[in-house]
Amino acid sequence: MVARVIPVECFDLVVFGATGDLARRKILPGLFRRWKEGQIPEGSAIVGAARSSFTRDDFRTLVQEALTEFLPETELDPAVVASFLDLLDYVTIDARGTAGWEDLAAKMRPDVVRAFYFSVAPALFGDLAQRLHERGIAHRQSRIVVEKPFGNDLTSARALNQILAEFFKEDQIYRIDHYLGKETVQNLMAVRFANILFEPLWNSQFVDHVQITVAETVGVGGRGEYYDKSGAMRDMVQNHMMQLLCLIAMEPPHCFEPDAMRDEKLKVIRALDPVTPAEIVRGQYKGKGGDDYLTECGDPASRTESFIALKLHVSNWRWKGTPFYLRTGKRLKSRASEIAVSFKEPPHSIFGESNQWRENVLVIRLQPDEGMDLRVMIKEPGPGGMRLKDVALDMSFAEALGSDLDIPDAYERLIMDVIRGNQTLFMRGDEVEAAWAWVDPVIAAWEKHGDQPEPYEPGSTGPEGALMLMHKDGRRWREIR
Question: Which residue range or ranges hold the Glucose-6-phosphate dehydrogenase NAD-binding domain (predicted)?
């Protein structure tokens, strides 16, 4: 199957921080792939902007090297690469000064979509927004894209929202969370709201519990100093995992439009009960050499968590009494992200005690093998009577839609949505603030009591306390494969 490609309008896209790691790894390779697929029209322009004193040719060389490093050789047709490099320009700019802004203004065209990607530290968001406004480079139809972390707590998130609101309307601000651009995450909405099969069962009457897992095999590595100021709660739970929880728990919006979707997600966050200490487990990997968190972060007294597991409750009519279990961590057994919706057992079994029932589970795999499977009970083949067995009704995207299907990276899809002016998969300001309002008291309690994270072995499934969090409820985590 070949995915249908719908071109966007002609645009000018300025990438601030264009020489940085995110731009090289994700943004620029993603734009190249959209160009290769014909989604970016002729006449569009991509302008890199950073402090580095590059010429246009220097920047094009950097981008070509990034494409070679981060994309397969089979995708890099020389003619296509050359035509993409022709779209590129560069401006040396001082985010907090005056240098470069006149040059940038001269490159903007009045008759195309104008977007600005802030791939920089959040401390520069306000400076960039102010100068784009004061220099007349951004107009009412312009859009800005801001990367996480969007604040470090509720106070800083509000301050950032207020700074951006001085110069841009809410419908111009695109707070990007790449998890929402994943194909499977969007298919979760399709499965729920485009099929009568699941939605009638999507409530506390039929769902026993929900597990959301985001496991990583890597440690903090070179990000140790940065990560130690955030930890798993700020780095993953407050944004990525909160968004996944919202998509699972939200009510059906009245239509598939940005504010309708975000209104329902906001209701979920506001319905979250406060968590108690017994419902939280924090961990920190303890190994040897480079596998030790304290060594990598450079602080032998650090109490920052590299793993967290939580039990959450959504207090509304749909989910009252159904627990949501979240866990995420670094240096775990394998790299895996999934959502598992476990349904309750039938009220009565007609097959006798010899046939042990195993729960029906809908598993949405976000990575590495994007797809879904539903575990159901069937009769085991053979003449030996009625023996039940659980099997998976498996749908791998690669198998179901064709091995040649090219699934775009999340950044590719989201950047094209920015050009279209579609905010459905982006967070709204009040959504961000509500998430921080729930997270802040949890972090404050840790800091007040000086809690030390529980150690766990690198390559394991996390600390023992996480297993006990489920065990005391008569449940267990799904295996991290």
Answer: 14-187
User: How far from each other are the two terminal CA atoms of the chain, in whole angstroms?
Assistant: 29
**Nearest residue to 296 (alpha-carbon basis) of 215, 235, 222:** 222
**Residue 106 is assigned to a ligand binding site:** no
Q: What is the dihedral of CA 39, 40, 43, 49, to 10 degrees?
A: 180
Q: What is the pTM of this model?
A: 0.90
Domain boundaries, given as residue ranges, for the chain: 11-147, 180-407+437-471
Does 235 appear as a known binding residue?
yes
**Count of other CB atoms within 10 angstroms of residue 167:** 18
Residues with catalytic roles: 240
Sheet holding 88-92, edge to edge: 88-92, 45-50, 11-16, 113-118, 143-146, 173-175
Tens of pLDDT, residue by residue over 61-81, are 999 999 999 999 999 999 999
Instruction: Find out whether 333 is annotated in a ligand binding site.
Output: no
The response to whether 209 counts as a known ligand-binding position is: no
**pLDDT over 70 at 96, yes or no:** yes
Q: Cα dihedral angle (462, 270, 258, 24), rounded to 10 degrees?
A: -30
| 466, 470, 475, 477 alpha-carbon torsion, rounded to 10° | -30
Specify the DSSP element, H or E, that contains 292. Answer: none
Annotated binding residue 387:
no
Beta strands in 344-458 (DSSP E): 361-367, 371-379, 388-396, 454-456
Q: How far is CA 174 from the centre of its chain?
A: 14
216 is in an annotated binding site: yes
Tell the CATH topology of 11-147.
Rossmann fold (3.40.50)
Q: What is the pLDDT of residues 125-141, one digit of tens each?
A: 999 999 999 999 998 88
**Fold (CATH) for 180-407+437-471:** Dihydrodipicolinate Reductase; domain 2 (3.30.360)
CA distances from 79 to 25, 84, 405 (A): 21, 9, 23
Beta strands in 245-290 (DSSP E): 280-285
Tokens of 443: 């972090």
Q: How far apart, in whole angstroms, are the C-alpha atoms of residue 188 and residue 193?
A: 9
Q: Is 344 annotated as a binding residue?
A: no
Q: What percent of the chain has pLDDT over 90?
A: 66
pLDDT in tens, 29-40: 999 999 999 999
Most distant CA atoms of the chain, gap in Å: 83
